Every structure is written in C-alpha cells, then in structure tokens.
Amino acid sequence: MSSPEAILAFWFQGDRHAFQERWFQRDDAFDDAIRAAFAALVPAAREGRLDVWAETPPGALALLLVLDQFPRNLHRNSAEAFASDAHARAIARRVVLERRLDLALTPTERSFLYLPFEHGEAMADQDLSVALFEGLRDDPVHRAPGGTIDYAWRHRAVIQRFGRFPHRNAVLGRESTPAELAWLAAGGGF
C-alpha cells in the first residue's frame, strides 16, 4: 500500500505552492497514472481504514486527495466518482474545523482540504467552502480570476440556484428539472 508521502510527491511534483492545470482537466494519462499507483487506496480510504493518516497535516492532505480527488479521476461519469464525498467532508471537518491542521500547509495544499466542502450539495458546505477559500485571498494563485476563490463562489451559486449540481443528475439517477436541463444545455459550467 502506498504512503501519504508517495501520494503528495505524485500530486504536487515537488512544488506544493504552484497550481497545476492537470488537476482539473480531463487527462487520460494522468488518470491512468493515478489508477496504476493509487486505485487500491480509494476503497480502503472510503471504508475508514486510512483515517489514521488524518493525524498529521501531510497525512490529512494525502487522505483527502484519495477521498475527494482520486475518485473524480478514476470514475469519471459514474456515481462512484462521488461515493467518497461524505467521508471526505467528515475528515475535512475534523482536520480543518476542529484541529486546524490546514494552517500548517501551503495555500495550494490547503485548497485540497477545502474542496470537499465545495463539492458538497448542502448550502452550509458551500458557505463554509467560500469562507475557507476567501481565507486564501492573500495568495495570488487563489485570488486570480478563475482561481480557487472564484470557483468556490461559482459552485455556491449553482447550489443556491438548484440545491444540487445538475451535472451529476444523470449518473446519480436523478431526474433533471426543466431549469437544470436549460442550464446544462447552455454549458452548465462553473
């Protein structure tokens, strides 16, 4: 089984400050690299078998990457992409709100502790996401147009409007409303 250090070395490629486009763009080679090295960790993390990693800032960061980011890369266009979300938010709450381990990390690293809230479909999670990302405003990477703060606000606007992310409806077996279908047909982007 892989270690938190191996996950962080792979994800950040030695630079824990810079934003990397590959994190948020479809890239089959990147997804395949995650699959080859770390796919077995996702079910273990979802079942809570890696929760001990959350005792340290780097371990918590690695665990949240496994719970929140890796499923999105490994299971695109399927319900399994979101199957770890509830556990990721529970870990993020403990790590960020109770223990404040996020403060020991770089702003870019912190953003991955905050993403589970941005990915939540509850308004309270969206409000928390925006508050946490706004705390990164001093960092130029995050405050730039199209940066993480901007995306936090965009995600919140979708939840405020629809109460859920319409682009997930099909894979989660949810029926889309006419307003959601219109939004999706118009691009439905963030």
Automatic annotation (TrEMBL):
<dbReference type="InterPro" id="IPR011990">
    <property type="entry name" value="TPR-like_helical_dom_sf"/>
</dbReference>
<dbReference type="Pfam" id="PF06041">
    <property type="entry name" value="DUF924"/>
</dbReference>
<protein>
    <submittedName>
        <fullName>DUF924 domain-containing protein</fullName>
    </submittedName>
</protein>
<dbReference type="InterPro" id="IPR010323">
    <property type="entry name" value="DUF924"/>
</dbReference>
